[in-house]
Amino acid sequence: MRRMNTDATPTLKPVPGLDIEKYKPQLIERFSNPGIRDTVARLCAESSDRISKWLLPVVRDQLAMPEPHVRFAAAIVASWARYAEGVDEQGGPIDVVDRLKERVMAAAQRYPNDKHAFLRDKELFGDLIDQPVFVEAYDRVLSSLHEVGARETLRMLLGHAS
């Protein structure tokens, strides 16, 4: 809900007949339904299509605001970069499923020698590499994913770091 409120909602244009404040809890309830099971692998599949269509437009709208909120969006992109490295936290292989698999994996695997290699793909990210507020948030999360792992990084993002 926090990402909805800080990142996405301020960028939405009004939709006639839709009360966004009533819709958000309904959306959370729908995605929280234990009868609708999903896998992390399926959610990560084809990230190059999903992120460019659904996340980056919100990021660009936020960056145009006087006080942009991109922390959670940057965390999603950093998580994608970490996933695209193709190795999990235990050192096992990750089967990256993406039409741009070779390209995103090659860029992601250049970390830590080039911590921004993933963001330098202008076709995917445009000028995000030139947006310090986004890059700083991305760097924090990607470093944390490498140093303490996904679970602790998520706790930090939600303000529950130990």
UniProtKB/TrEMBL annotation:
Gene3D superfamilies: N-(1-d-carboxylethyl)-l-norvaline Dehydrogenase, domain 2 (1.10.1040.10). InterPro entries: 6-PGluconate_DH-like_C_sf (IPR008927), 6PGD_dom2 (IPR013328), Mannitol_DH/Oxidoreductase (IPR050988), Mannitol_DH_C (IPR013118). Residues 4-142 form the Mannitol dehydrogenase C-terminal domain. SUPFAM superfamilies: 6-phosphogluconate dehydrogenase C-terminal domain-like (SSF48179). Pfam families: Mannitol_dh_C. This is Mannitol dehydrogenase C-terminal domain-containing protein. It comes from Paramicrobacterium chengjingii.
